[in-house]
Amino acid sequence: MQDQRLKIAIQKSGRLSEPSIGLLRKCDIAFDNGAGKLRSTAYDFPLEILFLRDDDIPQYIEDGVADAGIVGQNILAESDCRLEPVEMLGFGRCRLCLAVPRGFEYRTLTDLAGKRIATSYPKILNTFLAKKGVDADIHSISGSVEIAPSIGVADAICDLVSSGSTLLTNGLREAETIMESEAVLAARRGLDGPAKQILSRLLFRIRSVNAARDNKYILLNVPNEKIAEIQKLLPGMKSPTVMPLAIGGWSSIHSVISEHDFWNVVEQLKAAGAEGILVVSIDQMIL
Ligand code: PRP
Ligand code: ZN
Question: Percent of the chain having pLDDT more than 70?
Fold first, then answer.
């Protein structure tokens, strides 16, 4: 029965751990993830979750230890493994940057020519510098890259920046962005059989959860003579639901609106005469 499960690798501890676990839970997949756990079997979905170092995930997928995984695009780009990017997940947004000590007078990339740059992303950095025609000395290190300049082993670094607080506390500032990144669901190329089917089922749930995250359910009361005008503001999934209220001359309209322009739409609805506006989160949205 073991091979009837999809094995998915997620980051054991780090920026993507909590949102990755949160996403699976929102897909109604229940599992234990006690401290120190390396693998966990979901109770009600054919999934085996492996908790690994994010840098190792692509290789484990390619070797068949896992079938799929949730990793940053930065990890995929740095890896030599050719995996299938299945779905962008919209969390874990960050950027891979070149950063220099605050006292370093940085104007253009050529200021880094001949300098030592510490990074855990030698492949991406090398490609970037080669494309720009800048020759620098890349020092590949696996962790704590941000301290390299202060202990004198590098003049600059190339590392991930999310909030920017790591750079700030280490007296560094951003010089150049090399790539933007977010979490992605990736799978082994040519995945087939039960694993592929389970991946499709998981993907269906992930898309439903993410669509729901980006949308809200809205209910409002409108005078009947305003229905036409207000309907134009609310496209809905097919079209809005319009129901008469118990008092004459008024209706209730229900619809789905995008979270992105949600406040704009609400302002326009109010201006058009809507009252008693309720906005509700959606758990899943099946498209
Ligand atoms: C990155 C990077 C910094 C930190 C930056 O590490 O190496 O340490 O995040 O975040 P900040 O701008 O919010 O301070 P990551 O989470 O990828 O961990 P890892 O390198 O150990 O995998
Ligand atoms: Zn990492």
Answer: 99
